[in-house]
């Protein structure tokens, strides 16, 4: 049979963490292998046996475990090139009775489904119980936070201090703007008032009194009568003496008219406002129509000024009140900012718990793993013996085991065998390859050179560079290095390797010779303070060198004299190493080559090379020589197992790593590149590459 163990809540994946996963055991996963182990457990199989006991009383757990085979069904992955386990399990039971096979599988399926539902319900019930325990506490915390916020609002008589502060600020700006407008109106009214006062030449009080008297017909009639009497009195005084009865009567008449005039003045001005004196009573109340208009305008201007002043005073009080309120708002806003978010957070927590409780309740009702039957249990069919199938299986198994053996052998062989392996494993440019040269091949190659004699038993490393294929390979590597920076040459390069014995010193010397042949001033520094070699290669003294510069034993002004000069000269010939017979007759002499190098040996051994090769000190040494040389090559220690390479490489413009074929492994190469990744690793060189000699025949052209 086949069953699908897809979970009901897997559809929630992709929307973040499911709610039940937040409050339930997150370790429950749809893992086919885990489900297989559960299905084969003794506890579940015993439940199946209890159901089968009536029909098969002799059946045991061990029997079912031995005959039951459960495995995942595999399908194509997303790429279509591989296979991946699906959530469909295939269960097969082997027995001599076909009906028994079908009955046992049906019983197991029923037990599996019941067990799954119970486990899932138990898991979700635990999460639901946890939520129910938390809800009362969260509700109480929400009520407390809301009560604190409500008490704050009632005590301060404000709903939202920030919003109220904005309203108050707007009101204050409006009041200030209105006061500015009032001040402008007041200045304008004040100017008009002063102009009217100058025109009338009287105070507003006097102008109002005079205007009222001028508008009274009776007052004006009395004034006219008094003026007539005074004219008559003046005329009679010219003709009569002062004691004449006529003059006395006129004077008496004048006094009576003035008394009536005062009575009329009191009637027109009941409060005595603007009352005139005895001397000026006859001159008051004689405004013309224009003067009366000006007096009214003056009075109106005075009233306007008084109104504007009162309005400004009221606005000033309002402004002071609003400013006082604004000074209180920062503290209120701070209190509100503490209370309101607390209420929101607690309300959100409560809502999440309520939502989670609802979802968990639905999940419990829905069930857990929906074990759908993809293929129902069938009657058993004969499976053995089957000769044809066994033969086919044997053939397939043999091929499979052979493939596995070949694969295991390939997998266990981690060694890099050729330059293609080197380039495919590391995403760095392959700068070139150095040909493999055995001891016998080296003697055969050197035998064709003019300096070599048959009685010489040993040859030195510089001798190897007279073998033209090696020189041409080094020239190509040097040219590729120079092309990396778009024609801008490197001033300093560190040459290293993952392990010792991979040819880093040989590559350093070869690059130096290639550069020197191009008339470059070259300095080689032996930075391998643990195992120096350059002084032995050139038979140089090693009493002074890099270590003495780093320790300060030699003053900085004498550093330029520390390198030792090496002169090299040989007669170049062209040869064809692919032809063993008549080798000497195939030689063609070329012009002699001579070149010179400067070598800074490692110097005396140091007790602590790591401390000696500090970053700043090594940079000082390289910087001291950069102006004197076109190229500085640093022969550093190997990378793996030592930390010496890091400070040396940080002081150089670039790093070149060499790897020997059939020696270095992919793991060692990857580890070394990871370490050098902190430096400017510009490329790799493959050493010991097996190449047919005929590849170099074109060199004779």
TrEMBL record:
Coiled coil: 172-267
Gene3D superfamilies: P-loop containing nucleotide triphosphate hydrolases
EC number, as in UniProt: 2.7.10.-
SUPFAM superfamilies: P-loop containing nucleoside triphosphate hydrolases
Keyword RNA-binding in record: no
GO molecular-function term, one example from the UniProt record: protein tyrosine kinase activity
UniProt entry keywords in alphabetical sequence: ATP-binding, Coiled coil, Kinase, Nucleotide-binding, Transferase
Ranges for domain CobQ/CobB/MinD/ParA nucleotide binding: 493-632
Tree of life domain: Bacteria
CDD domains: BY-kinase
GO cellular component assignments: plasma membrane
Protein name, UniProt field: Tyrosine-protein kinase etk
């Amino acid at each position: 049979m086949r069953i699908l163990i897809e979970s009901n809540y897997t559809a929630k994946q992709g929307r973040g963490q499911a709610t039940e996963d937040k409050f339930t055991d997150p370790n429950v996963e749809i893992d086919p292998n885990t489900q297989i182990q559960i299905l084969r457990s003794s506890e579940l199989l015993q439940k199946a046996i209890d159901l089968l006991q009536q029909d098969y009383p002799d059946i045991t757990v061990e029997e079912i475990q031995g005959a039951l085979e459960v495995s995942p069904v595999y399908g194509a992955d997303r790429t279509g090139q591989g296979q991946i386990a699906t959530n469909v399990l295939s269960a097969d039971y082997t027995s001599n009775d076909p009906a028994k096979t079908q009955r046992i599988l049906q019983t197991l399926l029923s037990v599996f489904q019941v067990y799954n539902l119970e486990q899932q319900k138990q898991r979700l019930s635990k999460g639901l119980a946890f939520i129910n325990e938390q809800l009362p506490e969260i509700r109480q915390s929400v009520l407390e936070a809301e009560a604190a916020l409500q008490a704050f609002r009632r005590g301060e008589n404000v709903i939202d201090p920030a919003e109220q502060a904005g309203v108050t600020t707007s009101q204050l700006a409006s009041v200030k703007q209105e006061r500015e407008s009032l001040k402008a109106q007041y200045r304008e009214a004040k100017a008009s008032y002063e102009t009217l006062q100058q025109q009338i030449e009287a105070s507003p009080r006097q102008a109002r009194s005079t205007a009222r008297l001028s508008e009274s017909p009776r007052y004006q009639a009395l004034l006219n009568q008094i003026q007539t009497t005074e004219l008559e009195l003046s005329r009679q005084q010219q003709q009569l003496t002062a004691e004449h009865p006529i003059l006395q009567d006129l004077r008496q008449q004048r006094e009576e008219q003035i008394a009536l005039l005062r009575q009329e003045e009191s009637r027109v001005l009941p409060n005595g406002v603007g009352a005139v004196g005895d001397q000026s009573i006859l001159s008051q109340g004689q405004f013309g129509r224009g003067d009366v208009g000006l007096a009214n305008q003056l009075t109106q201007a005075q009233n306007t000024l008084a109104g504007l002043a009162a309005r400004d005073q009221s606005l000033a009080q309002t402004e002071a009140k609003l400013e006082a309120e604004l000074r209180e708002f920062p503290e209120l806003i701070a209190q509100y900012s503490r209370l309101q978010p607390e209420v929101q957070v607690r309300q959100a927590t409560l809502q999440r718990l309520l939502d989670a409780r609802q979802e968990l309740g639905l999940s419990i009702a829905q069930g857990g793993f929906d074990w759908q039957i993809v293929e129902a249990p069938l009657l058993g069919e004969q499976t053995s013996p089957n000769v044809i199938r066994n033969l086919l299986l044997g053939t397939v198994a043999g091929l499979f085991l052979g493939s596995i053996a070949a694969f295991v052998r390939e997998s266990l062989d981690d060694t890099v065998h050729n330059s293609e392996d080197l380039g495919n494993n590391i995403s760095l440019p392959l700068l070139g390859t150095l040909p493999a040269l055995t001891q016998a091949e080296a003697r055969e190659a050197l035998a064709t050179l003019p300096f070599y004699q048959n009685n010489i038993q040993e040859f030195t490393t510089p001798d190897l560079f007279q073998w033209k294929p090696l020189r041409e390979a080094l020239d190509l590597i040097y040219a590729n290095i120079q092309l990396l920076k778009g024609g801008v040459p490197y001033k300093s390069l560190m040459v290293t390797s993952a392990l010792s014995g991979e040819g880093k010193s040989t590559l350093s010397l070869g690059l130096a010779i290639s550069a020197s042949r191009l008339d470059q001033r070259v300095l080689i520094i032996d930075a391998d303070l643990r195992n120096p070699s350059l002084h032995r290669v050139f038979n140089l003294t090693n009493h002074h060198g890099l270590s003495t510069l780093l320790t300060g034993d030699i003053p900085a002004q004498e550093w330029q004299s520390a390198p030792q000069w090496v002169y090299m000269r040989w007669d170049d010939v062209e040869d064809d190493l692919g032809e063993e017979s008549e080798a000497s007759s195939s030689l063609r002499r070329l012009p002699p080559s001579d070149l010179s190098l400067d070598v800074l040996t490692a110097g005396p051994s140091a007790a602590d090379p790591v401390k000696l090769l500090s970053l700043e000190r090594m940079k000082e040494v390289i910087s001291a020589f950069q102006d004197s040389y076109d190229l500085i090559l640093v022969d550093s220690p190997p990378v793996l197992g030592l930390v010496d390479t890091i400070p040396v490489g940080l002081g150089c413009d670039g790093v070149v790593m060499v790897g020997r074929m059939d020696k270095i492994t992919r793991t060692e190469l990857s580890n070394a590149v990871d370490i050098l990744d902190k430096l400017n690793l510009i490329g790799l060189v493959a050493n010991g590459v097996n190449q047919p000699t005929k590849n170099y025949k074109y060199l004779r052209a």
